[in-house]
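Human: Not sure, check this?
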Amino acid sequence: SQDRQFHPLASAVSPFSKTRTNPEDAKAAFEEAINRYNQYLASFPTNEKAYAYKGLTLMEGKKYAEAVAPLEKAIELGVNDKAIQNALAIAYRAEVLADQLEGLRGA
């Protein structure tokens, strides 16, 4: 099943694990994780868990604007989890704050 195939991604060590002390290693692991989610989602575009984990990984990497779409898709596909809903709310808020900061810089 899709969930069984997805499980290795879900159980993978976070690219931001405390055991990764080298920022370049963490960046490479983050990019690899996002690439793996993208590859998986290309084959299984309706797997809500993959979208949720991709969104959470992007949040962990402080890629808030990029996290919005996969988190929204996870909810659209049926994820009914407070953690995902909260992550989406934080991503929305981070986007608003980034826009406000940009406006201040331009003023």
Notes: Helices lie at 2-10, 23-43, 48-60, 64-76, 82-106. The two ends are 53 Å apart (CA to CA).
